[in-house]
Amino acid sequence: MSTKKYKGFEPKWIKTVAPEGSYRSIFRWGDPEFFKWPKESLYNLMKDTFKMTDDDFKQYNDDIGFDKVENLGRSCKLAKEHIDALKEIVGEEYVTTDDYARLSVAYGNTAYDLLRLRHKRIDHLPDVVVYPDTTEQVEKIVAYVTKHKIPLYVYGGGSSVTRGVEPMKGGITLDMRKRFNKVIKFNEVDQTITVQAGMSGPKLEETLHNAPQLFGAKRAYTCGHFPQSFEYSSVGGWVVTRGAGQNSTYYGTIADIVLSQRYATPIGVIQTSHYPREATGPSLNQIMMGSEGTFGVLTEVTLKVFRWMPENRKRFSYMFKNWEIAMKAAREMMQCECGYSSVFRLSDPEETSLMLKLYNVDDTPLAPLLDKLGYKDMERCMFLGFTDGEKGYSANVAKNIAKIALKNGAIPMTGYVTKSWEKGRFNDPYLRDTLMDFGICTDTLECTVNWSNMAQVHRDVRKVCHALPNTVVTTHMSHCYPQGANLYFIFITKMSDEEEFKAYHTTILDAIQKSGAAISHHHGIGKMFAPWLEYSLGEKEYGVFRALKNYFDPDYNLNPGGTIGLDLKPEEKRNMLNK
Amino acid sequence: MSTKKYKGFEPKWIKTVAPEGSYRSIFRWGDPEFFKWPKESLYNLMKDTFKMTDDDFKQYNDDIGFDKVENLGRSCKLAKEHIDALKEIVGEEYVTTDDYARLSVAYGNTAYDLLRLRHKRIDHLPDVVVYPDTTEQVEKIVAYVTKHKIPLYVYGGGSSVTRGVEPMKGGITLDMRKRFNKVIKFNEVDQTITVQAGMSGPKLEETLHNAPQLFGAKRAYTCGHFPQSFEYSSVGGWVVTRGAGQNSTYYGTIADIVLSQRYATPIGVIQTSHYPREATGPSLNQIMMGSEGTFGVLTEVTLKVFRWMPENRKRFSYMFKNWEIAMKAAREMMQCECGYSSVFRLSDPEETSLMLKLYNVDDTPLAPLLDKLGYKDMERCMFLGFTDGEKGYSANVAKNIAKIALKNGAIPMTGYVTKSWEKGRFNDPYLRDTLMDFGICTDTLECTVNWSNMAQVHRDVRKVCHALPNTVVTTHMSHCYPQGANLYFIFITKMSDEEEFKAYHTTILDAIQKSGAAISHHHGIGKMFAPWLEYSLGEKEYGVFRALKNYFDPDYNLNPGGTIGLDLKPEEKRNMLNK
């Protein structure tokens, strides 16, 4: 949230809590009482870029959704006997066919979802929403839907940007937020915590910080997993989509952090093993992760936990002369074996330019100084981060990063930039809602590359983005490895039609597939990315997923309707690889 | 090899190169011209333990196998048309039905194999041995055996201790040693190397050390993977069994080191992706690893490589007062987030006692001094290792290890002990052959545990071992993680009958399964451990492997006869979990 007053005209940003039961209360992000609007510099940039005037910000472009969700005209199609059976399992009050409850679990958080909700376009609704309390209840529900061939969906935190939660075939949605979010076991000897899959990020982190008070632990811990969606994402969502947090360069992605999982599947309970490594055939943990609710419903997860030692954290930021040098330096940092930085984030020139505006650096003497030194706007690249771990480890990582940055001609920018970034790290989604009120749409796409194809993917994908009208595309890498990194594209565009957005999204994903990058580093696949999956992996390779699906859920009752491409028709699949 | 002369009687250890074409040339380990025999202290210990006298070492207990392999009386049952077809694929001279060639790929290196070979007991032989040269040839062979339903086995380095290579159904064995061991690509930008699956450990490491000369690289690299079997193991074997090297605590197991894999399967080529992480469904890399030749034949592997910086290595060793304190300290070292030691090896009291004999510490004033200080024989625990990585990283790990060891009352023992261990790290298998000549059998079993069940597993398994007659059982952990470690049991026993050995092995594996540990940390499953696998993982969990098998190789032509339990009969499976 900007605290600075605008010098010029300030749009009527919505700063009112969305009414209870309203559409807006569903489609806006997170904390109802938190608001964020752009700094004046960003506001001006958008006016310039999108050829808008103050007048365009005098009225809302879209329905702002303050009206109540009611009379959706979609009656529950599930027979009363099924509803009764569900009530029998979870308790009368934890089964509902209420319109608001149903709509609130029908969409995730891609712009396609938000625009549809703003337009009151309801493509799919569950017939009934169920709030389970225990693993046993979920297991009974899965057995029940299997027997009666009822579609079953799961809503964790709802932060999916891939239409992962959308109930394409109606049926039942399990809303995990209300009750399925408890700690099952904390084990300080093994440094693990076992939780129900609906556990939210903040509640998990708070629990671990308070381990001494809650569990009599010797110290405080952290989960190490902080996606941008942290505040409204769930552990289960992290796991089934193979998510990654912004500190993954040190802590690993969720695929590294998970120790074991329990699933309720149509063939019964699947409990993966809980050893750090083993040589007992294919890894069942790595088979279940990424299944996105199609093999079974994740009920319990045991996560590795880490020591909470913020006192050892070293913040840093550097400005590199250009993207090529910056990539080379980042690679050296990842390959030199000095340990890994926790946050490790390198912005390309366009993102750097935008960041300097956002962080008000453009208004300071630093901007012209950088220019003078040859670190020019739209060439220079901002690199920032902080280290974690034991004191000596953390210091050694920061020391080596400094050494490599300086050797590559970077200018130290102090920890100020990093702190500015930290302030906004979890609340950019609020800004997105504010901009959408005026017809400006922001969304993201991301992929994984090896170092050797990074420059090419960056160039190819951005070229396609820039050929699209009215687009700002910023790019960074934020999850880095000795063999490569993710590339994360944020696009801001003047757009308010969901189908226009979908076509736009498709064009970029086509470019990512064509470039040879992995089509998702940590957002998962869901239903929105599914058309690209089979050809990206290879048809025979992809066939493995279908074989697994046929083992676990041969009747396709779990998250049906395209999730990870399992029930797509041939004509729905996209293949840009030979084009 | 002991260079010290024996003071007393010295047995007639075999120090003669086994004749070419002999049984011994097959069953003895490794370099034909290298020999190792026990130090006098160990010799005396064995006499004491097994109630043997010098007289028992005057003649060989077993057939020492100097006679030529010939007239095995097992003619090739494969039709001439098939042999011709194979010759068509790989070339006339690379297909053989020669007895020696066939026997040399029929066994691995468990004592069960070696004893059978010493007794000229030949249970299974391939009908024909083929030496492929290219990936394309292997793909053609897999297509051919699929079409004609011919069993196909692969022999990489032959160091399997799980009967992984044994051709239970005859057919074809691909011997990868001769030609399928080439470098395909070295990529310094991504720090990867792609090799054919038959590449041997030493050739790979030598290649990487010589990267500047061979590839014009900027520096030398290391593969980071050094199992005890290093000298005669293959990259393919490491990968398909999910092996781990002795430096895995820093470099990771092979499951961490592999970036991508290519397999020739009955349904065609499977190429896994080459990104450091991705969120595109279940991990195909982690599905193929551990398949042990049952889903396809591994043809090409891309491995991450590491910088070769031995100048940064810090050696250390410490003596802890007892196992309980030592386990606690080791856990703290793994959980304190200071980085990870490369070699990290903690021996239990019985192993420590043996090591002090082997390293001649028992003859020095140190031994009584340790006793006097309260670090008593059969209570004290030896901990040793060395660090790797960038200079500051390596130093920080060593510093923290020292701090934690001292805080837990350990006595520093200098790098001498570590160096002694290093000298023998790859050549203990030679000692094994020497002892077998006199009816003393050594073998190993290992498992994974979490920290919280380590004491119990250690106690339970050792109790069972000690109830067996004439047994020395030493235990260490050598692959450690924040959430647990492996436990590695070495047993030395007076035994020369293979069925007696098998029963003995079964008893210990029963104990491991019953204890709740993972039945293999890095040896894999093969055919020997297969009976325990299904019940250890759970029946529904195990069913996933069968579903995958049915997708890749529905006719069960690849490594058939029990590998990872896929074609075991119900009565062949073992379940000790509820006993």
For the biggest sheet of chain A, the summary is: 8 strands, antiparallel
Described by its quaternary structure, the protein is: homodimer
Largest interface: A-B, 91 and 91 residues
Q: Class by helix and strand content of chain A?
A: alpha+beta
Give the rounded overall mean pLDDT of chain A: 95
Count of DSSP H/I helices of chain A: 22
How many runs of DSSP E, i.e. beta strands of chain A? 19
Percent of sequence in beta strands of chain A: 15-25%
Distance between the termini of chain A: 44 Å
Helix content of chain A: 25-40%
| Unreliable runs of chain A | none
Over all CA atoms, what is the radius of gyration of chain A? 24 Å
Outline type of chain A:
globular
Write structural notes for this entry.
Two copies of one chain form a homodimer. In chain A, strands 12, 13, 14, 15, 16, 17, 18 and 19 form an eight-stranded antiparallel beta sheet that branches. Chain A has a five-stranded antiparallel beta sheet with strand order 5-6-10-8-9. In chain A, strands 1-2-4-3 form a four-stranded mixed beta sheet. In chain A, helix 21 (530-537) packs across helix 22. Chain A is an alpha+beta fold. At the A-B interface, strand 9, helix 12, strand 11, helix 16 and strand 16 of A face strand 9, helix 12, strand 11, helix 16 and strand 16 of B.
Q: Which structural traits does this protein have?
A:
alpha+beta, 22 helices
